Amino acid sequence: MYGVEERENPKPAAGYGSPLRAYWHPVAAERDITDAPVAATLLGERIVLFRSRGKIVAFKDLCAHRGAQLSLGHLRDGCIVCPYHGFTYDNTGACIYIPSQPKEAQRIPARLELMQYHCDVSYGLVWVALEDPVAKIPDFPEFDDHQYRSHMAFRQFWACSAARFIENATDFSHFPYVHPGSLGDPEHPEMHPFEVERTPYGLHWCYDAQLPPSAGHLGGTVAYEVKLIFPFTSWARADGEDGATILFTAAQPISGGECSMWLLFARDHSHDQPDDIWTKFSEQIWYEDKRVVESQRPEELPVDLTKEVHLRAADAGGLAYRALLEEIGLDYA
Amino acid sequence: MVVIDRELCIGSATCVRLAPAVFQLDSSGLAVVVDPMGADRVTVERAANRCPAGAIFLDETGVPGDEPGR
Fold this sequence. Notes:
The structure holds 2 protein chains of 2 kinds. Chain A is mostly beta strands. In chain A, 13% of the residues lie in helices and 32% in strands. Chain A has 4 helices and 17 strands. Chain A has helices at residues 162-169, 175-178, 276-293, 316-327, and strands at 25-29, 38-42, 45-52, 55-60, 74-76, 79-81, 88-89, 95-97, 116-122, 125-129, 149-158, 197-198, 202-210, 221-229, 233-239, 244-255, 258-267. In chain A, strands 11-17-16-15-14-13-12 form a 7-stranded antiparallel sheet. A 6-stranded antiparallel sheet of chain A has the order 1-10-9-4-3-2, with no helix packed on it. In chain A, strands 5-6-7-8 form a 4-stranded antiparallel sheet, with no helix packed on it. By secondary structure, chain B is of the alpha+beta class. Chain B has 2 helices and 4 strands, in the order E-H-E-E-H-E. In chain B, strand 2 and strand 3 (31-33) form a beta hairpin. Chain B is globular, with a radius of gyration of 11 Å. Classes of the chains: A mainly beta, B alpha+beta. The A-B interface holds A 2-4, 305-306, 308-312, 319 and B 7-10, 12, 14, 17-18, 20, 46, 50-54.
């Protein structure tokens, strides 16, 4: 009998019973929720979002009658109308109208209601928790701070798990190889040891990096401060010669092998410059990351350390992240 | 011969769980060999193969290499 068990039924990140259902995840941009239902997928679950009386609400994207996808329907007076038989639900998920019954003699079955999810808006993003949340929406105080100029840069869909994505977003040792000349210096790939601190929100560390002269507006020595806000958000502050730039990157876990990432910026400098400078630069960086991260196998990050090989200094953040994933009971994320 | 490269060791204690008579963590939280003969070869090889840092080296000839990990 060996001391380390082989897991015959590994517990994945997506699906029913996943502990990740009890965290807030971004699912849409607030500006995209207008006068029609919007579909999104979170942890393998189809959800529908719509705006009703000024508030955005989220439900399971499934009519309680015959299981049709409600997001294919339409809105009428703040209610969602099923595309199949016209069953109409209000913004609490209660069915209020069945077209096949006489209007003046509606008999609404007791179980005819939608499953509602926690839904809130922060930083222009719609956040959803599929179960009672065990943590708050990740903090990004600079986004609404008047000393900073903030903007939402872009959203991308990646063919990898959210954990693979966010580990890459907080990894520095790939810079010289994936981003040579922009974020990393191929002549100086060495990483010095750094301390990873556990915090109530996740993990925190600082790292000073020497960027190559070709790094453009970032330039020179950059002091990075990283908050990995568990499970899938990175708040990274880069202090350079110009000032401080915050990159807020949040990943939406769509399924085990798919995620969507959102990138927001806040900067306390260069307010007279167009936001597009930062957006374009990041598009190139993330493009370089994407082709490598999507090649990783398995698509989901193995929590069991024996499935991969780890370096003590360069992988300190990734090791601590795996420990957090293990603590909530995941084998893959 | 069983050699641990302590520069590579991450202190996961995987080897300790698999072969506690051979490996232990010291006060710095890194693995040390306490008894190379404390388990059969299959068990020690398994510990080496499962080490998440690849820090355990087995020398077939019974003579440790000059520079483990190279």
